[in-house]
Amino acid sequence: MVRNVASRLAQSLHDQVTITSCLWAHFVTGVVPDMSVVRAILKITWASAAGQVHLITSSLDEIEKATERPPTKPPDPEDLQVCREGLETLSVVLALYPPALETLTKDTQFHKLVMGLVLVGGERSIRQCAVEQLLLMATKCSNSPHTLVVFIVMLFNVLNGLNGEYSKEYFQLLCGLLNWACVSSVAVTGVDRLLTTEVEWLKNVRASVAQMAQGGPEPPVDDTLLEGHLCVTRELVAFLPAEKKYEIGGDPSKSIFLIKELVEDFIFPFSKVYLQLEHAAEMPAEQAIPVCSTQPTVIAAYELLVTLCTGCVPNLKLLAEMLTNMYYSDCDESIGEWEYLPPVGPRPVKGFVGLKNAGATCYMNSVLQQLYMIRQIRHGVLAVEGAATDPEEDFSGEERMEQETNLDGNEEDAMNSSSNEESRKEYHIGILKQVQAIFAHLACSKLQYYVPRGLWKHFKLQGEPVNLREQHDACEFYNILVESLNEALKALGHEQIMNKILGGSYSDQKICKTCPHRYSREETFTVISIDIRNYSNLYDSLEQYVKGDLLEGDNAYLCEKCDKKVDTVKRICLKKLPPIMAIQLKRFDYDWERECSIKFNDYFEFPRELDMDPYTVAGLARNGELIDYDPEDMKTIVCSKYKLTGIVVHSGQASGGHYYSYILHRNGNDQRWYKFDDGEVTECKMDDEDEMKNQCFGGEYMGEQVFDNIMKRVSYRRQKRWWNAYLLFYTRLDVEEDNLSNSMSELSLAERPGLIKMPSAIDRSVVRQNVRFMHSRSQFSPEYFQFLKKLIMTNHPFVLQPPQDRVAESEEIAMISTQLCSKFLFSVGLHTKKTLRGPAPEWYDALQVHLRASVHTRAWFAQHILFTQPHRFMEYLLECPAPEVRMVFSKLIVLVGHCARNDPPQPLGWGPLKHHPVKCGRNVHVSGAR
């Protein structure tokens, strides 16, 4: 409706273009809107925003009361379109009739409309449109700066009661208005007071995060609120002169130290701890938790730092010194390789840590992840003391790459043959220690994956070190690992948690038919191995597993008590069911004729929920089967129902392939399947029946299209699914699911080492690795690179001024910026991939302004960057593989030489230049060609 009216009005005005100026003036006077039109548009906009279009004929008071009630149905798209067009029309009307805006700014109902459109929950598109149009109204529809100030005051009045969920658009509007006021030199009353309030808010957030780092509750700070307050602080700081910026940023006499707190607590807390470890070699008492933990908040904090340093030499100097100490001090080594990217990424947000594959160690990784995700095993293993006793031992798994690639069975064997033979007890304890290190890093590491180097070196199969490039059976590794962990726990005097959780027992029975004698032997197990050949599902295979065989004739059993052979029923059945039951699907065998291993890819399905009662001694007895049982056992009620929680899949052939795991993660009522594929852990759709069938059951499928020359048409070829389930993990339903859910949530969502009991030596190693990684990651991020570029360029206007107009500090600004930028570029920046550093010419544009501005910056650059390193020219002109980096270095050389041609000689008394080829036959100096 509004659009149609506007279209007809525009067409009518267009048709009247040819009238005389007098008549035109009279015509325009007749069509200029008045307050009645403005209020009508307000009604339409407000009512449609609330989904109450039928109220457009009501008063604004009635519309206000209706909008206070929560909506009973989702908004109509046409209502939303009317609201957006109403806002746009209101902007046009106010531009035509500016006095109306002055009137509206004094109307409390208009204030409520503004807050309702910007802050009240609903369609984000309405809030975004409101921000855009209100910004136009405040800046373009009035000639008086007072209107802009009124809008700013109106928004500040509700700042303290914001809801973080819907506040993003509010902060966008407030920051846009403040920015316009600063650029337009509009005086905003109470800037100092408002800024003080914002700084206090940031300090309170910092204090709450510090309390959480010491074990307190998590701070109730919404990231949207944090980002918004950082942005508002930035816009308020932009109003300040350099002296005031220094008081806020780093003046010791004022003790505000906003720059120091932003760097050490909001953005780089890990770098702060890293420096402490480098100098003191002692772990800090509290954890390093950044206040800004999301990309938008980090960017907002960076931009606040840039604003604090714009035109303020002391702040810029302070920040440059802090960054240099963290990343570019003399003790730090520069990157030697080109096109560098960090080899390991961060742990996924609310995700899990993977395990690195050394070549063919996927069979280890898939089993270790399954064991780790069992809460009782994870906590039980980590809580054991006595295995990791050396407080200085490094469990990080970090080592030089060439050493890792050279690690194979022969080298490990040579190492062990030259050392003393360790006892079996020490070996098992060593395995326990390495598994503890793996579990600790899986729980608390901030890296994408952990390198289990210690287990690679320590683990043995049949007494021999493993070759990391040779694949072994995952079930065999599972059995050996569980046995070794049990032996270690026994040696240290702890409960054998592996047997308690994974161990069950079966009854091997022989029941004589022609005499009353029965023989039964109970044996333990940690995995049930069942046949899949000639069976299509787990039920049939389990039924065959407990089915009795009749021994008769020549195969009759020799009854020891009768001392003669009698017909006997021989069967194996389950007696004690474990809390976590592992089932091996026997897909591998050995072909003795061909003398090679073979794999069966037959179709074999298994249920998500499984009742094991029919396969137990008690269950068979209840069904009337011939079996030996204790009547007392029949009175005991034991849960026999299980739920599928883990699958180990083998992909490939018997001679080689790949193992990976699917694991069910439960968090309260929410449950999700994850795929653990070595270093990659991703969510998957294994809860879908078709996905389960396609990924785990094996069998055949219709594969790629082929052209049939006989039939003269395209047909599909049936192919085997060579990826299928090999190990199944079922969890008994009476296992404490509440504790499981809480612990899983705790590990995957918090990643706080203090919440998990573990040996102190391993805990320190995890923290050290996290600190080193996060320190490096803070630097090798696109956000940091962009921040540094903005920091270098923010003072270009001060440096580019004509010599007669330059401020006294402009040369110092140029020197500080040149030093920081040069150290960054030639130690890190130019050696990274373009995806991280961005276009290299942009860095040239950032640096060249400062080099042109000052003789001293050119002299420093020539001395410390060009000539101090004898091989720098060859490195950047000949060895560098990136053409644009070579071009930038060439342009910097030309720029310095060109600008220095009229500079006075600068004596170079530096050691590295004494034998440098750049000598002029006399005293070496930085000067242009004479």
Automatic annotation (TrEMBL):
Domain USP: 353-733
Molecular function, one GO term: cysteine-type deubiquitinase activity
Gene3D superfamilies: Cysteine proteinases
Start and end residues of each stretch annotated as Disordered: 389-421
Catalytic activity: Thiol-dependent hydrolysis of ester, thioester, amide, peptide and isopeptide bonds formed by the C-terminal Gly of ubiquitin (a 76-residue protein attached to proteins as an intracellular targeting signal)
SUPFAM superfamilies: Cysteine proteinases
GO annotations of cellular component type: cytosol; nucleus
Annotated EC: 3.4.19.12
Tagged with keyword Chaperone: no
Any single GO BP term: cell migration
Keywords: Hydrolase, Protease, Thiol protease, Ubl conjugation pathway
Enzyme type, top EC level: hydrolase
Family under the similarity heading: Belongs to the peptidase C19 family.
Name of the protein: Ubiquitin carboxyl-terminal hydrolase
Natural source organism: Cherax quadricarinatus (Australian red claw crayfish)
